[in-house]
Write a structure and sequence with these properties.
This protein is an alpha+beta fold. It has 2 domains: 155 residues, Electron Transport, Fmn-binding Protein, Chain A (Pnp Oxidase, Chain A); 55 residues, no CATH class. It is built from 5 helices and 8 strands; from the N terminus they run αββββαββαββαα. Strands 1, 2, 3, 4, 5, 6, 7 and 8 form an 8-stranded antiparallel β-sheet that branches. β3 and β4 form a beta hairpin.
């Protein structure tokens, strides 16, 4: 069982939060899977997600659309002594476009740190991307080397958005149920015998059945 070094974790997070430039490595689409490195600026999220502002015309963006596996390397060069004793942090994960639900929060955070990035907003080929970290490797210098606890680098919902994916799913479910109750009951209740439902059947239960019938007809028969 791994025992993660808490001191290394603190040093790595402090470095991660204080820096804002890195080398992004993606898997080349053009050159048969070779690693492709490029200089990028980044901001750290409310958790430890990495946000990038990338052009669709850049090779690293073309690469990530083909293969999301990526790596970002942060380096703090040792100016006093052996350069090999420099601190560096390597973060591996999947690189993907930022969901629309948090795009504005991401934009606000990025432009607060990089005001000059507002100019890029006038170009239609720039979008926000995020790396969801699944592995982290810290080298703080000689003898300060370890893999960090991946659980501490997991993505969490943005502030004010309680698990936006679950929220969206719930809204979609309620919407389908509403459609079933309104339209399904209107069009299909005459086709269902009066004694089909038990006397105690709830309105939502009936609506659920009408939803299934309505959506099936809408998607399979009518499209």
């Amino acid at each position: 069982m791994n025992e993660f070094n808490k001191n290394h974790e603190k040093e790595a997070v402090s470095f991660f939060r204080s820096d804002k430039t890195a080398i992004l490595s993606t898997i080349s689409k053009k050159y048969d899977g070779y690693p492709f490195g490029s200089f990028v600026t980044y901001v750290s999220g409310w958790d430890r997600t990495i946000f990038l502002y990338l052009s669709n015309l850049a090779d690293h963006t073309k690469n990530l659309k083909n293969n999301q596996k990526s790596c970002i390397t942060l380096l703090k060069k040792n100016k006093n002594g052996d350069v090999q004793n420099s601190a560096r942090l390597t973060l591996m994960g999947n690189l993907e476009e930022v969901p629309k639900m948090i795009n504005e929060k991401c934009k606000e955070r990025f432009q607060n740190i990089f005001p000059e990035s507002k100019v890029y907003a006038q170009m239609h080929d720039f979008n926000f991307y995020q790396i969801t970290v699944n592995q982290a490797r810290w080298i703080g210098g000689f003898g300060k080397i370890s893999w960090l606890d991946p659980k501490n680098w997991m993505k969490v919902p943005a502030p004010g958005l309680d698990s936006y994916e679950e929220c969206f799913s719930s809204i979609a479910t309620l919407s389908f149920l509403f459609i079933g109750i309104v339209f399904g009951q209107q069009y299909f209740s005459p086709l269902i015998p009066n004694n089909y439902f038990s006397p105690g059947a709830s309105y939502l239960a009936k609506g659920g059945i009408y939803s299934v019938i309505y959506i099936f007809c809408e998607t399979v028969l009518f499209i």
